[in-house]
Amino acid sequence: MNHSYQDALAIIGIEGAHPGGFELTKQLLKNEKIDHSSKILDAGCGTGQTSAFLAKTFLCRVSALDHHPEMVKHAKKRFQQANLSIDLYEHSIEELPFDDNSFDLIIAESTTAFTDIQKSLSEFYRVLKLKGTLLSIDMTAEASLDSASKKEIMNFYHLRELLMQSEWLNSFRQNGFSDVKILRSSTVLEELMNSSAPNSPLQPLNESLERVMDEHYRLIFSYGNNLGYRVYRASKK
Questions:
Q1: Is the full-model pTM beyond 0.85?
Q2: pLDDT for the residue numbered 197
Q3: Residue ranges of the Methyltransferase domain (predicted)?
Q4: 90 - beta bridge partners?
């Protein structure tokens, strides 16, 4: 059986796979105005690590959503073990199952780039309340990334687009967002070299999963200086 990178993350149960990891997530959230009355969407929640942190730290109402059934299983188990009342959905962020103007804050960690970006940003804008905030940690092509390398990366990660910083900023604005800021900027390789060891798998890897992760790290070390990530913060006004 051939697995995608997203399958591998879900089956292995990798936490904080985005550059900067969970420590970056905690820093970002603690800089936001969040209290018990806040309604927050963790879009692409993975194993539920960020959702659980939000619920425990701020006692706010959290909705967690992921399209991959294995990730949803991991998140459900986490929430049950911690006795957390978090609404969990197995759904795509391209068509969110929520009413307009539902959330004060959306956090999307290394999620949007793996979808139809324009659809997802439009949905984020729709379900945010007025004066709501989107925090998006996303893969971003550096200007030095050539077309052949870009194609190889897109094929492996099943990306529809691989946007440069200027293209991301334009996409946020075209979908209605204002006051778009870049809170953090780095190449993937820089972040990897400065990060701690990755999380251990929740189960042993089979041959297919090992191949996927080996290819992932090959691409990172081959193109990591030309492939970056950004933390984008955008508002709905």
A1: yes
A2: 46
A3: 40-132
A4: 66
